[in-house]
Amino acid sequence: MRWHPAHDRDQQDLAAALARHHAPYWVVMWSYSLRMWVAFYTGPAKATPLRYADPDRLARQMRHVTRTVAAGRSP
Description:
alpha+beta; 2 helices
């Protein structure tokens, strides 16, 4: 059977849940080609996109960046 984006529905749903949970400053997507989640910070500071195959680790890093920016430091 050939691969189709619908085969990764669980990963896509998790990306959407992460984005909702970390709103309004994060956009999260599942990268089919990288086979990992990618998160983009859209808040008031410049941050390098995060890429992790483990969604828990991604969420921890997203919280870290958000706290760092809130404290007035550069991520």
